[in-house]
Hints:
Elements lengths: L5 H27 L4 H4 L7 E6 L5 H7 L6 E5 L9 H13 L2 E2 L6 H7 L12 E2 L7 E5 L13 E7 L2 H11 L1 H4 L10 H10 L3 H19 L5 E5 L2 H4 L1 H12 L20 H9 L3 H4 L3
Parallel strand pairs: 1-5, 1-6, 2-5, 6-7
Antiparallel strand pairs: 3-4
Amino acid sequence: MTRLPQSLSRTGSRIASHVLPAQRRWRRLQQSCTLTPAAAEGKMPSGSVIICGCPRSGTALMTAALFQPPSIVTVMEPWDGLRLKPSELFTSIRQEAESGNLRRGRLRIDLLRENGEVRWQPDGAQVFDVSANSESLIGVKWPTYWQLLGRAPAVKFVVCVRDPAEVVRSFEQQGGRLAQGLDYAVAFNADVNNSLQDRFRSEENRRIGFYDTVNEHVLRHRDDPDVFVAHYERWFVDRSGLLSDLSSFLGVDVTEIPVKIRPPASAPDGKAADQIRARSTTAKELGYQ
C-alpha cells in the first residue's frame, strides 16, 4: 500500500476536520426538518403570503422586491418553515416582525437597503430592524411550498415561473442535488424526490422532469383566486405592469421596489435549449415555445 507524503496527509486531515463537521451539521439540519405537506395542510393567519415555484425561477428576486415594510415583510427560506406547521410559522414571524427585530430568513436586508442587492446569508445570521404592525402582510419564500397549492385556505400564493431552458441549465450549473434533478433531502420533499428517482434514470431527464412536476401542479391551480403566477421575464419587459398586477393581487402598493433589477443575461438559445423546451410537458402551456 502506497503511503502519502506526511505533508499531504496533514493537509488531508485539516480539510477533513472542516468538511466532515460541516457535513454532519448539514445532515442534522435536514433531519430536523420533519414537516410533511399533509401535516402542513390547513388554514393560516390572515395576511399570509407564500412565494414559491420551481427552484431557480426567480423566487429570491420576488422575495427581495416584495420586502417593503410596513406594507409587507418577506422572509427568505427560514428553516423553521420545514419544521413548524405554516400556521405556527406565520404567527411566530409576525410576532418577531412586530417586535421590530427580524432574525429569521436568509435575505441580506442590509445590502438590499444599501444598494438594492439580492444576497443570501445563513438563516438567522443577523438581526435586522423592521417596521411592521398588525396590518402588515407577512410573506415567506420556500420554493417547495408549491406543494401547498390547494391545501392552504386564506393564503395568497405568488408563484414564480421561468423558461425551462433557463431553469434546467441553471440546475446543471448549480451542482449538488439540483444537478441530479432533486430537491433538498428533507421530509417535505420525500415523495416528490422518490417519484422523480423512480420515473427518471438519467439526471438529464430528471432535471426536466423536476421542472414539469412542479409546474404541472402550478398549472392545475393557476386560475385559483388566491394564486398569482409571475413570469420571471416580466421583470425585464413589463416591470410596471407586473408590479401593478401584484399590487392589485396583494391589496397593497408594492410598486416602489427596493431591489436593483439588472438586465438579464442572454437567454439560452440554439438546439439544446429548443430540445429542453420541446421535451418539457409544461413549457407550451406556460408560454415557452
